[in-house]
Amino acid sequence: MNGVVTIKQLQFEYRLTASYSAEISNHSFTVMFVPKDSNRQKITSLAIAVKECHRYYMTVDSFGNEKIYGKITVPHRTFDVSISGVAQTGLDIYEEYTEDSFNAVLLRSQTALTQPGAKLKEYHRCLPLEKCDSDYEKALFVMRSLPQSFHYRKGVTSVHEKAEDAFALGAGVCQDYAHIMASLLRMEGIPVRYVVGMIPGEGASHAWVEALCRGYWYGFDPANNKLVDEDYIKVSCGRDSADCSVIRGSFYGCAGQEQSERITVNEI
What we know:
The protein is α+β, with helices and mostly antiparallel strands. Helices cover 18% and strands 43% of the residues. Helix 4 (163-169) crosses helix 5.
């Protein structure tokens, strides 16, 4: 299998800012953008700051994703979260698979966002995947073939776009590439994790997939047509993008909301 990596030290900062058109209060929130240790990476330092929140808590979901949650009771018009630290990456080319039959079934099954329609099924039928010797080779072939039929373009899809609809458009962003690749591999019966993380030079979160091959989770980035290597910091994973939503919450007040995120990743 391909995949030679070099150990790197990547300094990262994630900044989420939400602005409200009027004061809100009793603001309950959950933020999921905390990278954690794995076979591939080790988080050597981590700092978390939530404006106006003097105490927050940590929890872990069923996919092992770290979440920050808390409540801001005082009136406020901005919500600001900063998560920064250093990740040592390139420790391995895969993640170990911990036997979990429940999640394996979930990750082999299509979701509302990855469910194939006529166009994706036809594309899948035309791929000569029966000639591949292993699930790893199938995943590699799908990743390398997809750019011939699907192109990177911002502004043509939405955050709720389904794989079938994006594929019919013929263009989209990293989220769409990941949903489409997940759909195609699941049609082969291969468990797939949708992954959210960070890479240098992107300025925003990035999405890719991990496929379970020969007992290990291997990362594939179809948007960049490359194997996941030491330039990637993994943050969260799930069945699709809905499982990896960065922020959820509720508040009292009648206010509109604008939200932005900024990510920097630099080698040190």
